[in-house]
UniProtKB/TrEMBL annotation:
<protein>
    <recommendedName>
        <fullName>DUF1501 domain-containing protein</fullName>
    </recommendedName>
</protein>
<dbReference type="InterPro" id="IPR010869">
    <property type="entry name" value="DUF1501"/>
</dbReference>
<dbReference type="InterPro" id="IPR017850">
    <property type="entry name" value="Alkaline_phosphatase_core_sf"/>
</dbReference>
<dbReference type="InterPro" id="IPR006311">
    <property type="entry name" value="TAT_signal"/>
</dbReference>
<dbReference type="Pfam" id="PF07394">
    <property type="entry name" value="DUF1501"/>
</dbReference>
Amino acid sequence: MLTLSGKSHGKFCDGVSRRDFLRIGGLAMGGLSLPELLKAEAEARTGRSFKSVIMIYLCGAPPHQDMYDLKMDAPLEIRGPYKPIKTAVPGIHISEHAPRLAKIMDKLVPIRSMYGSPNGAHDSFICYTGKPPPPNGGAAPVGRLSDPPSFGSVISRLKGQADPAMPAFVGLAPKAGHPPYGSPGHPGFCGNTHAAFRPNGAGMDDLQLNGITLDRLEDRRSLLTGFDSFRRELDASGLVGSMDAFNQQALNVLTSSKLLTALDLTKESVKTRERYGKGDPKNYGDGAPLNLEHFLLARRLVEAGARVVTLNFGRWDFHDNNYPQLLRHLPLFDQGMSALVEDLHERGLDKDVAVVAWGEFGRTPIVNKEGGRDHWPRVGGALLAGGGLRTGQVIGATDKLGGEPTERPVHFGEVFATLYKHMGIDTVKTTLNDLTGRPQYLVDGWQPMPELI
């Protein structure tokens, strides 16, 4: 029996008092109370009722030909000093500096023929939307409201929160010297209600009540609702309603410990934390940190109810000293990515959670005089896992220099269409209205990849 206490204020026409109406007793269903029914329903569920995506942005664009697409028959100034090693899948070889990923290749999909960046300009926009950045828009420190929204914001708008106490979209992106390297993906015309929650700096401060009790917080919300009632009646734009939804989401998160618990890595065993490692929490140049704990946070967040988590990792813009810098980045990525994928499988989340890691373009086949590789938008690479995808295969191929796609070119939009399908969204039929009221397709006509589904 569950009783919600409160004062009686008269009776309904059938003689039941308002206080009695708040008393939830045995129901005519085998004598089960409502809490017992809810418990039985929860226990009857098999697996999670929602899907998630973890997007890992390798800031600045990694050298694909030194990671997943080594060219040992090319001249030295193209192939570099690294050697390929065998993986768990016969016939698939990757860099010797990613041995952990090699061991779980049956759970991965390297794509060697990614394209879509229009001009080779550094921008996280295409990695978070699947679309070329709008002129002077995507590279701005704060995305414009007229821009297409990021994947996380679209999912937040179309699917909402899987758990009222968890943001639908979380971005593990720090502030960065180059603003796109610190972007979690902008909300665009979805509006700030669907922006990423960023649990760093001010984002964490917002989770503190600073001495205000929950009762006082509720009183303040009631007062605010009273002040807003007149404006809401006069509002024709829907702005106040949008703010109401935002405030409700914020209150749900603020009055629950679930998000803070998900962000608390001390809840994990020492063995698990050592498996993921620490990396380096400091920003790498004007990029993001090489923070391996973010991979573990991403897993904890999707497990707790986040639908989309974005993670910005390192600064892969190696115009000079390509090989020494890669030796700093690749082994850490190898550890974090492999730990994440294995952990998802061991926890039975591999079909529910899809993972993609990529940069905005590839790097030049020829190493320059500074020992670096420059921008190369013609082809790049990506790595996918989970989501019930057909793993243990390579998709696409490049020529002998690693400079042009020769088999199955893959556009960013195709990967996004595949991820939307994983989330239960039909990109052929689904549109979102922009600020002018015009319907916009999510992926500009691209279809899910048949090789993966």
